[in-house]
Amino acid sequence: MVAGDGIGPEVTRGAMQVIQASGAAVEFTELDWSAERYLKDGATVPPGGFATLERDYDAVLVGALGDPRVPSNIHAREILLGMRFQMDLYANVRPVKLLDESLCPLKGLQPADVDFTVVRENTEGLYADVGGVFKQGTPDEVAVQEDVNTRKGVERIIRFAFHYAHNHRRKKVLMADKANVMTHAHGLWQRVFKEVAVEKENADITATHMFADALCMQLVRDPRPFEVIVTNNMFGDLITDLAAALQGGLGMAASGNIHPGKTSMFEPVHGSAPPLAGKNAANPMGAILTSALMLQYLGLVEEAQKIEAAVLEAVRQKKTTQDVGGSLGTRECAAWIADKVQH
Ligand code: NAD
Ligand code: IPM
Ligand code: MN
Asked: What is the mean pLDDT of residues 309-322?
C-alpha cells in the first residue's frame, strides 16, 4: 500500500480496515512513498522500487499523490505515473456505476441508467512526456508536447476493451477520439478499432465511435446507452472526472491500473484533496470500492462482492460523508462499512 498524500492515508486506512473485515487473505506492506518522504530525503521511488513491487507483491493499493509543498509535482509523477509506465499497466479501468438515485445530479436517473466503464489507455499519448521548450523566457518561446500513439499500445488497449466487454457480459464498445482533427494519431486508432471490431470473436459486440467532445455532451444529456468506452490517456482522464460526477462525485469513483497477469495498481479516481486533508471529511467509498476491484483482480471474488454490497447498503442508509449527503466522518463511514462486511 502506498497511502501517499493529503486524504490518501485517511481513505486507504478505511479501505484496509474493510478488506480486513472481509476476511480476505491479504497481507499488507505499507510503503512511505509520498511528499512527506520526498521533502525529508529527496527520495520518490527508491532504486529498484518498481521491480520489488513486481517481484514481491500481487497488487498495489494507492491513496493519492499531490501536495502543495511540492509544486513541481515531481514525486507524484515519479510514483504514480512511474508505476503506470514502468510496470506497463496499460489499461486504466474506471467503472462508473450509480449506486442510488439520490447521488446522480441528472434528473430522474435510476442506478441501472448509469452503468458503464471507461477503459483508458494508460502508458502513452500526451502523458509520455515527450517534448521540450525552445527559446524559453523569450517572446519567441515554443513549447512542444508530443502525443505518442504506437500500434502496439493502441491495439492492446482496444483488445482489452473488447475482452472486458466479453468478461462483463457487455454488448457495446464505443471508441472516443478526435480523428476529425488529430488525423495521424487518431487515424491509427480508427484503423485498429475497425480491424479488431470485425474479428470473429467480437461478432456479438456492437462497435461504435463518437468524437470525444460529442461524447462528453451525450454523457451529461443521457448516459444510458453507454457500456464500455475506450479512449486515449488524456481524453480518458477528462471523461472519467465527468463520469465520476454522474455517480455522486469523485469521492465515489474507483479505478484499476491493469496489465493482465501482472502486479497491478488500484487507486481511487480522486486526488489528494489538500483542503480536506486531516479533517476526517473525505469520502472513503472510492477507495473502498477500489479495494473491491483489487480483490476481484486477485481472485477474491466473494470478498469483493461483500464489500460492494456493504457500500451499497451504506449509501441507501445514508451512512456516508457529507459530499454524498450523509453526516459521517471518514473513519465512521469506513467503520460502518467494515462492520457491515463482517456481519
Ligand atoms: P482532487 O480529486 O484532489 O479534488 C477535486 C475536488 O473533489 C475537490 O473539491 C475535493 O474536495 C473533492 N474530492 C476529491 N476526493 C474526495 C473525496 N474522497 N471525498 C470528498 N471530496 C473529494 O483533485 P485536485 O484538487 O485537482 O488535485 C489535488 C491534488 O491531487 C493535485 O496535486 C493533483 O495533481 C493530485 N491528484 C492526484 C491523483 C492521484 O493520485 N491519482 C488524482 C487526481 C489529482
Ligand atoms: C488521475 C489523475 C492523474 C492523471 C494525475 C494525478 C497525474 O488525474 O489519475 O486521473 O492525470 O492521470
Ligand atoms: Mn484525473
From this structure: 98
Binding-site residues, ligand 1, Cβ < 6 A? 7, 11, 64-66, 73, 76, 80, 250-251, 267, 270-273, 276, 282-283, 286, 323
Residue 88 forms beta bridges with which residues? none
d(C-alpha 50, C-alpha 159), whole Å: 26
Pocket of ligand 2 contains residue 121 by CB under 6 Å: no
Atom of ligand 1 nearest to the CA of 64: 40
For the chain, helix (H) and strand (E) counts, in that order, are 12, 11
* Structure confidence at residue 170 (pLDDT): 98
Residue with cell 451504506: 314
Q: What pLDDT is recorded for position 293?
A: 98
Kindly indicate the confidence band of residue 61, based on its pLDDT and cuts at 50, 70 and 90.
very high
CA distances from 210 to 35, 186, 226, 316 (A): 39, 12, 11, 34
Q: What is the dihedral of CA 149, 165, 244, 97, to 10 degrees?
A: -170
Residue 326 binned pLDDT confidence (cut-offs 50, 70, 90): very high
pLDDT band at residue 343 using 50, 70 and 90 as cut-offs: confident
On whether the CB atoms of residues 119 and 91 are closer than 8 A, the answer is: yes
Residue 266, classified by CB atoms within 10 Å of its CB into exposed (0-12), middle (13-18) or buried (19+), is: buried
CA 142 to chain centroid, in Å, comes to 32
312: amino acid identity, one letter: L
Active-site residues: which are they? 127, 178, 213, 237, 241
> What is the phi/psi pair of residue 159, to 5°?
-60, -40
pLDDT tens column, 173-193: 999 999 999 999 999 999 999
Q: Percent of the chain beyond pLDDT 90? A: 100
In this structure, the residue with its CA closest to atom 9 of ligand 1 is 273
Ion ligand 3 neighbours (CB, 5 A) are 237
**Cβ(296)–Cβ(308) below 8 Å:** no
Give the number of other Cβ atoms within 10 Å of residue 261's Cβ: 6
Q: Does residue 124 register a pLDDT over 90?
A: yes
